[in-house]
Design goal:
alpha/beta, Rossmann fold, 185 residues, 5-stranded parallel β-sheet
Length: 185
C-alpha cells in the first residue's frame, strides 16, 4: 500500500509518516528530501530560497509533476507499505496514480488551522521553516502556487489535525483499519 500525504506546512504530514513508520512498518519517501538530494548531486547550496527556486525550475523543465517523477524512482525500489510525504500538486497526484496503478495508492490530506501550524513550525525549528506568521503566510502562498489546495481536494481521506499527536495517531490507526477492510470488499 502507498499512502501519499498532502497538506499545508506544519499540518502534520511528517508526523503522520513517522508514526506509520514506527508503529506500522511503513517506509517513508519525503519528496522534499528527494529535491534536496538532487540539489546536492548538482552542487547547489541549499537555502530556503534556492530550494523554492530549484523546485520551480524542475517544474519548468520536467513539468508540474517533476518532483513526483524523481520520487517514483525511489518508490518503485521499495517493498512493503510506503508513505509519500509532501505531495504538493494535482499533477503529482495524477502521476502517482498512473505509476502506482494497481498498488493501492491512497491520498490523505492533513489539515490544521494557521495558528496551530505556525506553533508547530516554530517548535520544530527546521532551517527552512518560517520564523514569523508573515513568513508562514508567504510560504503558504508559494505552496498554493504549486497547487497544494487542489491536491488536497483530490484526497481519498481528510484528517483534521488540531489536537495532540496522540489524537493524530489514533486517527491514523482508524484510517488503516478502514483501508484494510476496504481491500476485503
Amino acid at each position: 500500500m502507498f499512502i501519499g500525504f498532502t497538506g499545508m506546512p506544519g499540518s502534520g504530514k511528517s508526523e503522520a509518516s513517522l508514526y506509520l513508520k514506527e508503529h506500522h512498518n511503513f517506509s517513508i519517501v519525503n519528496m522534499g528530501e528527494v529535491v534536496r538530494r538532487t540539489m546536492n548531486e548538482r552542487g547547489i547550496k541549499i537555502t530556503n530560497e534556492s530550494l523554492r527556486a530549484f523546485s520551480e525550475q524542475l517544474r519548468e523543465e520536467l513539468g508540474r509533476d517533476a518532483t513526483a517523477k524523481l520520487t517514483a524512482d525511489f518508490l518503485l525500489k521499495l517493498h512493503g507499505n510506503v508513505c509519500i510525504d509532501g505531495i504538493r500538486g494535482p499533477e503529482e497526484v495524477q502521476y502517482f496514480k498512473k505509476v502506482l496503478d494497481g498498488k493501492r495508492f491512497y491520498l490523505v490530506a492533513i489539515t490544521a488551522p494557521d495558528d496551530i501550524r505556525y506553533k508547530r513550525l516554530a517548535e520544530r525549528e527546521r532551517y527552512d521553516d518560517p520564523k514569523t506568521l508573515k513568513g508562514l503566510k508567504e510560504r503558504d502562498e508559494k505552496e498554493k502556487g504549486f497547487g497544494v489546495l487542489d491536491a488536497m481536494k483530490m484526497a481519498d481521506i481528510v484528517i483534521s489535525n488540531t489536537k495532540t499527536p496522540a489524537f493524530l495517531h489514533e486517527d491514523l490507526d482508524k484510517m488503516l483499519v478502514k483501508l484494510k477492510s476496504d481491500w476485503l470488499v
